[in-house]
Known about the structure:
Blueprint: E1 5-10, E2 24-29, H1 32-44, E3 49-53, E4 62-63, H2 68-71
Amino acid sequence: MKHTWYVTFEVPPDGTLSRRRHPRLTETFATEEEAKEFARTKFTSGLIVTAGTIIPHLPRRAIPSVEIPTWLELRGQVDPDQ
């Protein structure tokens, strides 16, 4: 199956190198739902996440980090521990 979605996320520092070689990594997915599931795990663990469609997939979508909560439909949910 052709991958049409990507999720990019920051790589947390592990402290072994003075400078990170790859501050961000990207994974690709066949469906938006698979991309959302992966992005949700990275986002809820505190990483900066962006996502979007891979060219030439139409319509093109780019989801910047500030819009990830809306894309994941997390906005408005309240953490019961807070």
